[in-house]
């Protein structure tokens, strides 16, 4: 499977850098003693920041030498054939730069970018699948509904996307007694069958989660959440009532696998979330084992609570998975690695904001299109290079 959609012929088009964007050079960043971005100066590939128009709400983007060089070379209109040998940027990369707004392409009415350039470039989003999974439906509905909110701050849009499908806390959702019931069940299990399987539970919740970790010779205090090579996550998307009634079975199913850790939300607001229960795996094989073990426990649930922007593992949406990518080389040291869901929600939110400013096409359509050009399989909500045997 190709990582990106097919690239149209761009050789007859003229491109130029977007004059509304400004490149902050490393020397400028070094001179600002209060800039958080000074840490990026230690990376040899870092070559500046792309600063969007003031008031746009769009984020600052870190540039490597190749992209920075291309933007500088296209400071005046140039045909693509005149400049392809001058910068090691693929045609896919050029399309991504146009969609992001950093690069302009010439049409009949002048130079355009973002949504206004979609038809000009001959791009088209993937059609809605004929038989979408329930997880896909929730993900798609999240984008369409959030796109129509009167919000122009990408961080707020991302938060709405991330928490989509959260249930009300009361009265139909999560009652006052649910967290304490889960806590007691976890402690009882971890001191008996969980202990025999090598699991131990932290005495206190951390950041709204109960962590249950498998003892290992190295005595790792956390699961492989922070490993630089990425982490597989298995989400158990069930409602609070089903979680309570099947918790013992779920815990025993996890104990029968090689999962190094799992976590469950420790308060009512966390339990109301779709992603309230996460099991970790180190490999895709381990993930497959976890899914197979959970299947008989939750596959018969009719009303589930699917986790948006994850890849469905069971047809009813009760189990899905995602892969947290490794730390990006331009990630600031004081920032944790983004989870897959945080990462993709942030990208969708920026695309929605771009489309709202441009007004050339429906924001949700542009967001879906841009995800495809970012190498994301929007049918299964995973990176295109993650060909999985789970579905």
Structure description:
Helix 12 packs across helix 13 (363-373). The chain starts with 13 loop residues before the first strand and ends in an 8-residue tail after the last strand. The strands form four sheets. It has a seven-stranded antiparallel beta sheet, sandwiched between helices. Strands 5-1-6-7 form a four-stranded antiparallel beta sheet. It is built from 13 helices and 16 strands. It is elongated. It is 35% helix and 16% strand. The chain is an alpha+beta fold and 391 residues long. The protein has helices at residues 26-31, 65-73, 80-83, 91-100, 134-147, 154-162, 178-191, 193-196, 240-255, 268-271, 284-298, 340-358, 363-373, and strands at residues 14-17, 22-24, 46-51, 61-64, 78-79, 103-107, 110-112, 199-201, 209-214, 231-236, 261-265, 277-281, 311-312, 319-324, 376-377, 382-383.
List segments where confidence is low: pLDDT < 50 over at least 5 consecutive residues.
Answer: 217-229, 329-336
| N- to C-terminal distance | 15 Å
**What portion of the residues fall into strands of 2 or more residues?**
15-25%
Total strands? 16
Features of this protein?
single chain; alpha+beta; seven-stranded antiparallel β-sheet; four-stranded antiparallel β-sheet; elongated
Please render the helix and strand layout as text:
Layout: E1 14-17, E2 22-24, H1 26-31, E3 46-51, E4 61-64, H2 65-73, E5 78-79, H3 80-83, H4 91-100, E6 103-107, E7 110-112, H5 134-147, H6 154-162, H7 178-191, H8 193-196, E8 199-201, E9 209-214, E10 231-236, H9 240-255, E11 261-265, H10 268-271, E12 277-281, H11 284-298, E13 311-312, E14 319-324, H12 340-358, H13 363-373, E15 376-377, E16 382-383
Helix pairs in contact: 6-12, 7-9, 9-11, 12-13
């Amino acid at each position: 499977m190709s990582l990106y959609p097919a690239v149209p012929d761009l050789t007859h088009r003229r491109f130029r850098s977007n004059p509304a964007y400004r490149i902050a050079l490393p020397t400028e960043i070094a001179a600002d003693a209060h800039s958080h971005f000074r840490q990026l100066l230690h990376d040899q590939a870092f070559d500046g920041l792309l600063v969007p128009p003031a008031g746009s709400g769009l984020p600052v983007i870190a540039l490597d030498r190749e992209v920075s060089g291309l933007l500088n070379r296209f400071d005046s209109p140039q045909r693509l054939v005149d400049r392809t040998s001058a910068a090691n940027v693929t045609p896919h990369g050029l399309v991504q730069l146009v969609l992001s707004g950093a690069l302009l392409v010439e049409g009949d009415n002048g130079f355009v970018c973002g949504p206004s350039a979609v038809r000009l470039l001959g791009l088209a989003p993937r059609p809605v699948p004929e038989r979408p999974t329930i997880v896909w439906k929730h993900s798609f509905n999240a984008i369409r509904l959030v796109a129509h909110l009167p919000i122009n701050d990408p961080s707020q849009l991302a938060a709405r996307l991330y928490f989509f499908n959260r249930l009300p806390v009361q009265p139909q959702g999560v009652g006052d007694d649910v967290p304490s019931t889960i806590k007691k069940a976890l402690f009882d299990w971890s001191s008996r069958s969980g202990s025999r399987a090598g699991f131990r539970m932290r005495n206190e919740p951390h950041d709204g989660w109960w962590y249950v970790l498998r003892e290992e010779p190295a005595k790792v205090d956390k699961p492989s959440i922070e490993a630089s090579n990425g982490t597989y996550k298995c989400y158990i998307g069930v409602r609070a009532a089903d979680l309570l009634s099947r918790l013992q079975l779920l815990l025993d199913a996890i104990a029968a696998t090689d999962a190094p850790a799992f976590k469950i939300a420790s308060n009512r607001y966390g339990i109301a979330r779709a992603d309230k229960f996460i099991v970790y795996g180190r490999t895709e094989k381990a993930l497959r084992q976890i899914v197979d073990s959970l299947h008989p426990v939750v596959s018969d649930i009719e009303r589930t609570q699917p986790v948006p922007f994850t890849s469905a593992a069971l047809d009813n949406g009760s189990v899905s998975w995602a892969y947290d990518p490794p730390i990006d080389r331009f990630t600031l040291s004081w920032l944790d690695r983004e989870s897959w869901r945080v990462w993709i929600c942030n990208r969708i939110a920026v695309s929605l904001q771009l489309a709202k400013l441009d007004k050339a096409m429906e924001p949700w359509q542009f967001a879906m299109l841009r995800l495809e050009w970012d190498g994301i399989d929007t049918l299964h909500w995973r990176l295109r290079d993650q060909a999985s045997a789970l579905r």
